[in-house]
Amino acid sequence: NTQQAATPGLCCCKHDGGGSGKEITGKDRQHQLVVQKVADMRPGFVQEDVAVLARKARVGAHLILNMDINKTVMMTDAATGKTTEVVVNEVLASTSWGKAKVDGGWSLQVPTPSVSRPAAAPGDAPYVSYTEWVSTTSPGPAHKKKRAKLQGEFTKPDNPGDKLRDVADRMVSNLMLPDGSEMKLIPAFFELLLRLKRENRSFTVCFRTFGEDLSSVARELTQFCEGKHPVYPGVCMDGTDGDVDYRLIPGCKERYGTFHRDADSGMSLVMGTVDQPGEGEFKDAKDRSMNFYNSYTDVEVKRGYDSVKEYLGQRCAIPGSLGLRDHYPFWFKNGMTSAAGKVFFFDPSNTSGQHALFFDDNLGLEELYIVQPVSVRDPHRRFWPTYLFQTHLCKAEPLESIADPEYFVKHVQRMEEGCERRLKARARLKRLVTSAKWVGRLGKELGQDPNEAWGRGLREDVEPYDPWLVLRRRKSSITTTFCPAESEARTY
Q1: How far apart are CA 177 and CA 166, in angstroms?
Q2: Rounded to whole angstroms, how far apart are CA atoms 451 and 449?
Q3: Which of 68, 136, 144 is closest to 100 using CA atoms?
Q4: How many CA atoms lie within 13 A of 228 on its CB side?
Q5: Residues whose CB falls within 8 Å of the CB of residue 396, separated by 6 or more in sequence, listed in order
Q6: DSSP per-residue codes, 171-194
Q7: Residue-level pLDDT at 49
Q8: Helix 144-152, helix 84-95: angle, nearest 10
Q9: Distance between CA 247 and CA 239 in Å, rounded?
Q10: How confident is the model at residue 268 (pLDDT cuts 50, 70, 90)?
């Protein structure tokens, strides 16, 4: 009996291992055969042994997946009352392109929505998205409700985007449960978890948000992990198969926490709660310092940059799920810039055995805006966004992630390949530099000036080479991000 119970634990979900008819091939089949051979040789082989073998057979670097919530993995917003339909309309408003009309309105000119701004004909004015037009004609906090209404009804009848109603309907249908209610977490996120599990990858999921939406995420993620999700029945990612438990437990000190940042005490992390002084039900709190947490008993507090970095480094190295609330007041007070954004610790070396990634729909292309990348090897180094977008950062695009269930899978693969290319290039450069040193020494021994010889090889008529040309994206290529109202930015 123990031998028969061992094999199903290897599957990414119960329906893959028993009864759906889905064929298991490649690495999964090979791995199952190996484990079954061990089971045949060991009468005492039990379920936990499967998990031990699986962990020993992990492939690739350990992934640390930092996932923003609103419009990255979730397309509803309970805090602002936005339904899936409203969010889809907002997404289409920011990716639909047209021109301002003479009468002051906006006219759709490009029939297919796209993330990137289409090129206009020579001599014509550039296309503007509906979101840009609305923000230009109704600017400022006083028109916040008007902007929200116009964008949220973009494809409804007699609105500028009504020709895209079929597109909106298809996107909404992709985010609905069989009973007609709304999914919280999008299929592309669940497909990423299933793929990583199936490929026997070691990974940690860390949800990051300024808002109060972690509880909604926790409920649906737990439902999914326990095999109770109506779209993914039978999934097993709750640890009952002897493998990792990816459920997110509210209030758990090991899985739930909040940042606190200010000029006096610096960076702190409070694990066991997501309460913040000055936010939500505590918006009227007079003391907004770390003293706010003195009355909290069942929490673990890490004070100071080094302590927070060390704790997160250790915690994120353990496979599982975390939910962290970032500190909006600090970001807002410091001008909503990357230097005060969601801190993102990563190790770019090839010796860590880890690869940290961050997905966020509000990432800026030229100034990261909402994320503060910090290399654990060189904390004071500032990174060029284009450099990080190849290996560690992904600006999540809901237009694409709603339509493509493989969206996150593809971008994880893209960044892993980018990291591998960079590490190989770094090693190759190191070898070239070493060779150049030996050539220089040889030249000196032969009585030649290496600088003079190098100068003779240069040509003035050669155009300068820009190796980043095809990779660099300008902020003008997408819908321009206008400074949001404070209540809007709190949901990022």
Answers
A1: 19
A2: 5
A3: 136
A4: 8
A5: 68, 71, 72, 359, 360, 361, 363
A6: HHHTTB-TTSPBPSB-HHHHHHHH
A7: 46
A8: 90
A9: 9
A10: very high
Average pLDDT over residues 73-94: 92
b or e along 247-260 (b: 16 or more beta carbons within 10 Å of the residue's beta carbon)?
Answer: bbeeebeebbbbbb
Burial class (CB in 10 A: 0-12, 13-18, 19+), 240: middle
Predicted local distance difference test score (pLDDT) of residue 485: 59
pLDDT tens digits, 87-98: 999 999 999 999
pLDDT band at 22 (very low <50, low <70, confident <90, very high): very low
* Angle formed at CA 233 by CA 208 and CA 26, multiple of 5 degrees: 85
In the block, which residue shows the tokens 């009973």? 179
Q: CB atoms < 10 A from the CB of 232, how many?
A: 19
- Res. 9: pLDDT tops 50: no
- Residue 42 is predicted with a pLDDT of 38
- Say which residue, 94 or 446, is predicted with more confidence: 94
Q: Are 248 and 321 in contact (CB under 8 A)?
A: yes
- Each residue of 175-208: pLDDT tens digit? 999 999 999 999 999 999 999 999 999 999 999 9
- Coil, helix or strand at residue 453: helix
DSSP string, 9-78: GGSSBHHHHTTS-----HHHHHHHHHHHHHHHH-TT--HHHHHHHHHHT--SPEEEEEEE-BTTTB--BT
Bridge partners for 129 per DSSP: 97
Q: How far apart are CA 99 and CA 311, in angstroms?
A: 51
Beta strands in 60-126 (DSSP E): 62-68, 97-100, 106-108
**Distance separating alpha carbons of residues 276 and 330, to the nearest angstrom:** 12
Sheet holding 97-100, edge to edge: 106-108, 97-100, 128-129
**Tokens, residue 262:** 């200010």
Helix or strand (DSSP H, E) at 313:
helix 305-316
State the Cα–Cα distance between residues 202 and 244, nearest whole angstrom.
Answer: 9
Tokens of residue 247, six digits: 């459920």
Nearest to 10 by CA among 232, 200, 194, 191: 200
Calpha distance 489→337 (Å, rounded): 12
DSSP 491: T
Count the residues in the chain: 492
Q: How far apart are CA 176 and CA 174, in angstroms?
A: 6
* Beta-carbon count within 10 A of 94 CB: 26
Using a cut of 0.90, tell me whether the model's pTM lies above it. no
